[in-house]
Design a protein that fits this description.
- By secondary structure, the protein is an alpha/beta fold.
- It has two domains: about 240 residues, Type I PLP-dependent aspartate aminotransferase-like (Major domain) (Aspartate Aminotransferase, domain 2, 3-Layer(aba) Sandwich); about 100 residues, Aspartate Aminotransferase, domain 1 (Alpha-Beta Complex), CATH 3.90.1150.
- The chain is about 35% helix and about 15% strand.
- A seven-stranded mixed beta sheet has the order 2-10-9-8-5-3-4, with helices on both faces. Strands 1-12 form a two-stranded parallel ribbon.
- It is globular.
- The model has no long low-confidence stretch (mean pLDDT about 95).
- The structure holds 4'-deoxy-4'-aminopyridoxal-5'-phosphate.
- 4'-deoxy-4'-aminopyridoxal-5'-phosphate binds next to helix 3.
Length: about 350
């Protein structure tokens, strides 16, 4: 099989060796006479794999002792509601950094549960930039400060994170988790869907400082209550087994390839290939503030929309998928997540040069 070059924003490319491992073990897992996706989540087969997965995730992200890590269903989107339901306390505010589609959606959900303070609003610059981390200070009566570390659609990424003191910092890291080391200790909670950098869609990872639960609202429906999940290490109800199994194998792959530092090196090299090309051309244009450019989602424009359409059509013919920008913003976007080989980025760069030569 000739594999396509997969620039989709998520679900997205996975390491081939992980797909092969899943294929080989789909019918029978480790000579156990049963597959992982048929086993009870209350049994050793699943739980041993789950415990290894959690331990490895903590190791690779350097998660301190006082944090717990588990997986839920419902996508990152469910967290948009669970976070304010659990932590936006009466007579306080929640600070949100309105940085683009994903942070804005989270803030809209929070508004249903209490008072939201927009600490920063990127509407005026069309969500092409971010505030300086060192200048971000939460409101005096803030329940938490919320940010999205990488806006998948806008292509902007925090390079550094604010110090919020006693106010919990909460971050959506759906689209850049384990693409670089992260100072976990600055956060009270980090979460994200796994379907970009970590595995097949289905699971959402939750990394939470245990003390955050002391600030929780009482009386929540069972699934919406983080304490319920915490008490059962994420196994309060049936977890997304297939997805978590995939995450375990991707984490093994990340470890083998240098861990968070190795992934950061890959992301820096791959994104630089495209940004250098864009910056040295008057045909391609990056709409993003260079100080906050994403190393995961490289957003770019051509001189007009007809050329952008033509670009996508021709790229698809040459085996490159997912280069159309999100329907809400248009333009073009190359997502270059951890598992995407550097060769695929070089192939795209060659195609871009050729496209400019013919149409520039
Ligand atoms: N946050 C970010 C940064 C995302 O990119 C996405 C999905 N693309 C979401 C949240 C929503 O994730 P899900 O579809 O898993 O609910």
């Amino acid at each position: 099989m000739e594999r396509k070059k997969n620039f989709f924003a998520g679900p997205s490319v996975l390491p081939v060796e992980v797909l092969e491992q899943m294929r080989d073990q789909m019918v029978e897992y480790n000579n156990q006479g049963i597959s992982m996706v048929e086993a009870s989540h209350r049994g050793g087969l699943f739980e041993d794999m789950y415990d290894e997965c959690v331990a490895l995730f903590k190791e690779l992200l350097n998660v301190p002792e006082e944090y717990e890590l588990y997986f839920l269903g419902g996508g990152a989107t469910l967290q948009f509601a669970m976070i304010p339901m659990n932590f936006l306390r009466p007579n306080t505010v929640a600070d949100y950094i309105k940085s683009g589609t994903w942070a804005n959606k989270a803030a809209e959900d929070a508004e249903l549960f209490g008072k939201v303070n927009y600490y920063y609003d990127g509407t005026a610059n069309k969500f092409s930039s971010l505030p300086k981390a060192s200048e971000v200070h939460p409101s005096a009566n803030s329940s938490y400060l919320y940010l999205c570390s990488n806006e998948t659609i806008g292509g902007i990424e925090w390079q550094d994170f604010p110090d919020t003191g006693d106010v919990p910092l909460i971050g959506d890291m759906s689209s850049d988790i384990l693409s670089r080391p992260v100072p976990v200790e600055k956060f009270s909670m980090i979460y994200g869907g796994v379907q970009k950098n970590l595995g097949p869609a289905g699971a959402t990872f939750i990394i939470m400082k245990k003390s955050l639960l002391e600030k929780q609202n009482p009386k929540l429906p069972a699934y919406m209550d983080y304490s319920k999940h915490s008490k059962e290490k994420g196994l309060y109800n049936t977890p997304p087994v297939f997805s978590i199994w995939g995450v375990k194998l991707v984490l093994d792959w990340i470890k083998k390839n240098g861990g968070a530092v190795g992934m950061q090196k890959r992301a820096t090299e791959k994104s630089a290939i495209l940004y250098d090309l864009i910056d040295s051309s008057s045909f391609f244009r990056s709409p993003v503030d260079p100080a906050y450019r994403s190393k995961m989602n490289i957003v770019f424009r051509l001189p007009n929309e007809d050329l952008e359409k033509q670009f996508v059509t021709e790229a698809t013919k040459q085996g490159m998928l997912g280069l159309k920008g999100h329907r809400s913003v248009g333009g073009l976007r190359a997502s270059v997540y951890n598992a995407l080989p550097k060769e695929d980025v070089l192939y795209l760069a060659q195609f871009m040069k050729e496209f400019e030569r013919k149409n520039g």
